[in-house]
Amino acid sequence: MHCLAERSGSGKTSILRVAAGLVPPTTGSVSWAGDEITGLLDDLVTRRRRAHVGYLDQGGVLVSGLSALENVLLPAVPDRRTRQLADRARELLDRLGVGARAGHRPERLSGGERQRVALARALLRSPAVVMADEPAASLDRASADAVIRILRDLADDGTTVLVAAHDPVLIETADGVTRLD
């Protein structure tokens, strides 16, 4: 697990969004597994990201008309795999401490609960790479520690994990830290 660390406003989110192929770099290039993605059509980058990257936005953005469980299952919709992945979605919600809230819509969830539901969504398809922007920022210490444990376990099992964070516990847990000034 590698961590981009420093205070708010230092560029952590921007670097993460460029690395995820969500925005193009102003200079240089971005490569995934040796393949340059800079300059590729957005549709192609999106398909590759969907296939290989789980991305957690800082805000834990969810679709308001859907339940927590339905939000987690969104990445399975294009492949028509929602039934196949429903048990995994429930397992992830349980592991993140929000399983009892699976039927609730986002407006009935706290900010921390929304963040954990969004993390479950990012992990649903067992991506090779997980990128998470401040995954513990809006959580109480116990919930933050659970999220850090999950990210650490993923990294230990061979998943590439890149996080942007200012949480000292998360930073301490990382294998490598890049501090931005």
Verbal overview:
This protein is an alpha/beta fold and 181 residues long. It has helices at 12-19, 42-52, 68-73, 82-95, 111-123, 141-156, 168-173, and strands spanning 2-5, 31-32, 35-36, 53-56, 129-133, 160-165, 176-179. It has a five-stranded parallel β-sheet with strand order 4-5-6-1-7, sandwiched between helices. A two-stranded antiparallel ribbon has the order 2-3. The protein starts with a strand and ends with a strand.
Describe, in short, the structure shown.
This protein has 181 residues and is an alpha/beta fold. Helices cover 41% and strands 15% of the residues.
Report strand order across the widest sheet: 4-5-6-1-7
How would a crystallographer describe the biggest sheet?
5 strands, parallel
User: Mind telling me the C-alpha Rg?
Assistant: 16 Å
Number of strands: 7
Helix content percent band: 40-55%
SSE sequence, one letter per element: EHEEHEHHHEHEHE
Q: Give the end-to-end Cα distance, rounded to a whole number of Å.
A: 20 Å
Number of helices: 7
How does the overall form come out from the CA principal axes? globular
Structural class, from helix and strand content? alpha/beta
Indicate the proportion of strand residues. 5-15%
Low-confidence stretches: none
Average pLDDT taken over every residue: 91
Which descriptors apply to this entry?
181 residues; alpha/beta; five-stranded parallel β-sheet; two-stranded antiparallel sheet
Layout of strands and helices, then pairs:
Blueprint: E1 2-5, H1 12-19, E2 31-32, E3 35-36, H2 42-52, E4 53-56, H3 68-73, H4 82-95, H5 111-123, E5 129-133, H6 141-156, E6 160-165, H7 168-173, E7 176-179
Parallel strand pairs: 1-6, 1-7, 4-5, 5-6
Antiparallel strand pairs: 2-3
